[in-house]
Design brief:
heterodimer, A: 132 residues, mainly alpha, 5 helices, 0% strand, B: 172 residues, alpha/beta, 5-stranded mixed beta sheet, two-stranded antiparallel sheet, 20% strand, elongated
Chain lengths: 132, 172
């Protein structure tokens, strides 16, 4: 039992170690820039493979886009500028986290609205049950 | 109230069914590129050692076809490109992420429908044009504006429905 537990600990340590040293293909040295880069990759849909972000894709097109984004960040582009560059080419559907504006308002409000309706219904039922 | 709650799963199922059914017929996302000018570029020609730019493109309506020798669907659309070229349609090729040698070999083996060919080995122009894969075809007018953007294989039906009417409109 103790042996099993210690083995588990060793395994846990090893896996967390390897997670800390994930391979990094960005070639960016500045750790702040690197964080921004990986953050951006998760916000952009790979145009070649619907449903995957750039960070999860190794498609040729995703590689080209990643290379391009690295260059832009190195030249001092802001996050908004990089996302603007993507939208300019592939439209708003390329963003996995759509910005809140008049076109996406219903999209953002729909889920809270449904939750509110369900909550009201549940409360109503609970009160009914308590009353009977 | 009981009926409302009992009907809820059915309502949700019908709603989801309607959404999925609708999504089957959505078709392609409209391209954001239509109505824009051809982006600036400077790329070598596949044949000869010219450097081609947006300014050296044909001064008449033409098709810009994204292709590669490694791309299987491009072989499917190759015969119709050959046929269009014979009818006098100007077709500019954009050889996407390809080896120039294999590209030239492919054109020698199966025929060359292109008036000229750009070599985009890094895929930069394709990226600027919002290309999502090969093959894709653009219709460009005489002043370099993008009139139509087709994702996927150009077949007889697509040609007659999407390209021919627009091309006829452009040619007086």
């Amino acid at each position: 039992m103790t042996r099993g537990l210690s083995l588990l600990w060793v395994l846990l340590c090893v896996t967390s170690l390897s997670a800390g040293g994930l391979p990094d293909a960005s070639g960016i040295d500045d750790s702040r820039l690197k964080t921004r880069y990986y953050n951006l990759l998760q916000q952009v849909r790979c145009p070649q493979c619907d449903g995957q972000s750039l960070s999860g894709s190794n498609a040729p097109m995703a590689q080209d886009m990643k290379r391009n984004i690295v260059e832009q960040l190195r030249e001092g582009a802001s996050d908004a500028e990089v996302l603007g560059w993507v939208v300019q080419r592939y439209g708003h559907s390329a963003l996995l986290l759509p910005p809140l504006d008049e076109r996406t308002l219903w999209l953002w409000l729909l889920v809270p609205a449904i939750m509110l309706v369900v909550l009201v219904l549940a409360l109503y039922r609970l009160r009914q049950r308590a009353g009977s | 109230m009981k009926i409302m709650i009992a009907a809820m799963p059915l309502t949700v199922a019908l709603l989801l069914g309607w959404m999925f059914w609708g999504s089957l017929y959505l078709g392609d996302m409209p391209s954001v590129q239509v109505g824009r000018e051809l982006p600036e570029f400077e790329l070598p020609a596949l044949q000869g050692d010219e450097t081609l730019t947006a300014e050296t493109m044909p001064r008449q309506p033409y098709l810009l076809n994204i292709w590669a020798s490694w791309c299987f669907p491009c072989r499917v659309e190759h015969p119709i490109l050959m046929q269009l070229a014979q009818q006098g349609v100007v077709i500019v090729g954009l050889n996407y992420r390809d080896e120039p040698d294999s590209a030239l070999q492919w054109l020698r083996d199966s025929g060359d429908p292109y008036t000229l060919n750009l070599v985009d080995s890094a895929g930069n122009l394709a990226l600027d044009m919002g290309v999502t894969g090969v093959p894709e075809t653009f219709l460009i007018d005489a002043s370099g504006n993008i009139v139509h953007h087709r994702t996927g294989v150009l077949d007889q039906r697509v040609w007659e429905r999407e390209f021919l009417p627009r091309l006829q409109e452009l040619t007086p």
